[in-house]
Amino acid sequence: MGKNIKITINGEVVEINEGTSILDAAHQVGVIIPTLCYHKDLCVAGNCRVCVVEVAGQKRLSPSCATPCEDGMEIYTNSVKVRNSRKHIIELLLSEHNADCTRCYKNGKCELQKLASDYKVMTDDFIPLVPFKHYTIDMFSPSIIKDDSKCIRCQRCVRTCAELQGVNALTVAYKGDQMKITTFFEKAMNEVVCTNCGQCIIHCPTGALVERNYIEEVWAAITDKTKHVIVQTAPAVRVALGEELGFEVGTRITGKMVAALKRLGFDTVMDTDFSADLTIMEEGTEFLSRLKRALVDHDPEVKLPMATSCSPGWIKYIEHMYPDYLGHLSTCKSPQQMFGALAKTYYAQARNLQPENIVSVSIMPCTAKKFEANRPEMHDSGYRDVDYVLTTRELAIMIKQAGIDFMKLNDMKFDRLMGESTGAGVIFGATGGVMEAALRTAYELVTGREVPFEGLNILPVRGMEGVKEASVLIENPLKEWAFLNGVTLKCVIAHGLVNAKKVMDSVISGEANYHFIEIMACPGGCLGGGGQPIPTSPEIRAKRAAAIYAEDAGMPLRKSHLNPEVLKIYNDFLIKPLGEKSHHLLHTSYTARKRY
Amino acid sequence: METNHQLKRADFIFKNENDWKDVLKKNINRPPHELINELISSELKGRGGAGFPTGLKWKLSAEVKSDIKYVICNADEGEPGTFKDREILSLVPFKVLTAMAICGYVVGAKEGYIYLRGEYFFLKPELNKAISEFEHYCKEINLDFTIRIFMGSGAYICGEETALFESMEGKRGEPRNKPPYPAISGYMNKPTVINNVETLAHAYTIFTYGAKRFYDLGVQYSRGTKLFSVSGDTPKPGIYELELGMSLSDFVNDFGDGDTKAVQVGGASGFLVPRKRFAETTIGYEGKLIGISLPTGGSMMLFNSSRSMFNVLDNYLEFFREESCGQCTPCRVGCQQLLKGIKAVKTGEKNAQHLDKLLRLAETMQFTAKCGLGQSVANSFSSIVENFREEMIY
Ligand SMILES: Cc1cc2nc3c(=O)[nH]c(=O)nc-3n(C[C@H](O)[C@H](O)[C@H](O)COP(=O)(O)O)c2cc1C
Ligand code: SF4
Ligand code: SF4
Ligand code: SF4
Ligand code: SF4
Ligand code: FES
After folding, report:
1. ipTM attached to this prediction
2. To the nearest whole angstrom, how far is the Cα of A171 from the nearest Cα of chain B?
3. DSSP string, A463-522
4. Residue-level pLDDT at B221
């Protein structure tokens, strides 16, 4: 903490910590300064210049996001000079911008549009530059559309991909009027190291980076009478969808979401939480069997630590960055893909439906899941297991298009068979959640007792620290697991791929010896996913996390192995975890990829 | 108050390099604060563009506590038509190396770098030879200082000090926000003194002959001599060392071709001075007495009446449009608008009032651009448009 200093903002004296930016200081006293390149999640770039303010005694204006307060500073945020300059800058941005808002996916949600609207930029003093440029629209990725004609070159995406994800798929190329955001060798987005995580999308202020949407395809399936459309919704969607539909951040709207999906015309509304619970059964069993092979059989082939595999952004990341370590990944498919494979087999049989007539849709907080559903190997049902993946944002658009007054909906429940969930499935949506769910089940399987944490809340794995470590000592296990007596299981949790890198590097260097690694590609886990409502910030993610844990705490069942529908599917269909059917439908393999 | 409107040639920079060993040894046996005071009292200002007092720069860096500090010699010399730094490095390299080492001693830095313009790679072998001889002597006298050459990437913007650091750190050459200033946080976020080649050569003069000798040259606010690259419509283009403070009329009398209509002082980011203002214009750093400041490396370009000022401005704006790093809005888009704008006025697509809008835009660029490049576009733009408005329209 620096020392306290005194400044004035528009004549008002403010006492503030030395080193606070002018922007933050202004916000603290209720003075709003517009920004574009600034984002709370990212380092300060100071390149858009819309946040400039006047400091008395200085001829030039200062970028408030990048300028620390100094004692005695006299700051003016709304002087003639500031207003004129700001307007100029907005006009300049618009002159270089393909501003066809009415046809833009970001219409109504765009920071540039909002600025233009707030400042009523209605002149055409400057010459439109768009006709002189050759912009590309990259639609090759199944997850992301990149439209350079909508880019204001704020570099938020570049910083996101580098600082939060450590992927560096996006970079700045050329200079002057040619300067643009592109990829290595300007390859298409589907040909580079991009993990499809979508973090760049939720950090982009404009329509330059958006998800590839499948709204029309889903409407077509719903309308087609010959199709049976089944939808699954991921845990993190229910704590964020409300933000798009007028609710406060952190509001849980699970029941309304189910009701809305039914009104939209989906034939069956199911819950990805069910397959999250199923994942715990499969992955927990896989983990214990790896431990056994390592500790009892001393099998040199067995790969420990084992890493979770439910985050498809993380999967693509490790395939590119650590292709020699794919053996450490659990072979479990993500809950989405488990669900998809079962929808066209187990569910089809139970309901007497022809799998070719089933359209399986998933609502995800994630854009990487679009890529995942598109993987060639994800056809174990004999058909494409998941046909369309919609983000939380796309679902909100459909709800609006259908004229549903979301606020007024009465709560409804998920349909049965694959719609039951436990609190363990719900917390998959937060970083540390898979680990917590796995421990709740695995510990109990091994010892016959509940995990030794009050109220089943394994607090060390929760929270927003980038890398979290936890360990659990196993004492007095059941006979079958006697070899685990006295073993301390070491677990580590990372979210945001830049933290995944830290964990992987410490594993590879031998510096850390973990047994189990949970990695989520996105900051905060799925609740901060690239398909979630925009904006995102540390505060917003914390509120969504609180909602997830509240949802868990309110569930009657909080352990995956108690999910009655999970018990039923093993009884009726799968027989046992890691059994032959499971192996065929619920597990997968990975593809080594190059970095360039 | 003294003024000096006489054009006076001088010959310090390219002379007397041979005593560098004595100069080095003598000075590193003086207390650092004495050396800083010597520099401060000489009133030497940076010759790389911004004209920041060199002594103060060294002092700021010396006062920061840090185990690691750096001294960097900026030899990126990107201004079109200037090659004075190249001449210094090929003719009197030891002056520059010596001044760097003295700076290292003063601020507490053990590592020096020369950021050498990519096109000057041919200087590298000779320079490296000089460096090994120099380092050898440093060892002999127990001075812990090394110098390495870093080859530039070829972009003009990399001459801007913070873009230069980014480039040295292996990143894209984009200027940083200031503050923090390099003296506090520069290369590798360590305290860094960065000086132009010529600045260091003058520092050598000061440490050889004392501050007074330097201070007695030039005029108030603009002490000492400066190398000028004279080009354009002149019978004698070349590099000249002149005492600061001369009047532009004197300069034109000496270097003009009898028909000089205007002089661009300070290259693309400098000012255009029309004939009617030659007499009132003094060449030196900004100060109360002096009509015009002297940005960038000392380029003086003369234009005679055959030249179209529209073309001159068009060329400068093309240069900026291309050489802007492109990161900040006012500079990236502003340069495009100024360039497209003057063309549109010329062709009649826009009326003459558009020039006034562009003048206001140039002012916004000056107030809001992130670095010196975008901030100084207004210098040439406004001085040309205001003085040669008819040439812009017809
Ligand atoms: C666009 C731009 C280009 C510059 N190019 C150079 C250059 O080539 N050489 C140089 O010494 N300074 C250059 N400068 C100035 C440097 O940023 C810096 O002020 C200088 O190196 C400091 O040294 P001095 O105090 O000795 O002048 C440039 C500045 C800008 C804004
Ligand atoms: S990116 Fe924003 S300003 Fe641009 S067209 Fe889309 S909505 Fe309009
Ligand atoms: S793509 Fe979006 S985030 Fe990236 S620079 Fe362009 S506008 Fe900014
Ligand atoms: S989707 Fe993720 S990995 Fe791909 S460019 Fe965006 S931030 Fe980078
Ligand atoms: S003023 Fe120009 S060169 Fe400087 S940072 Fe901005 S865009 Fe880059
Ligand atoms: S928000 Fe401050 S410069 Fe962009």
Report:
1. 0.95
2. 10
3. SS-SEEEEEEE--S--GGGGGGTT-EEEEEEEESHHHHHHHHHHHHTTS---SEEEEESS
4. 87
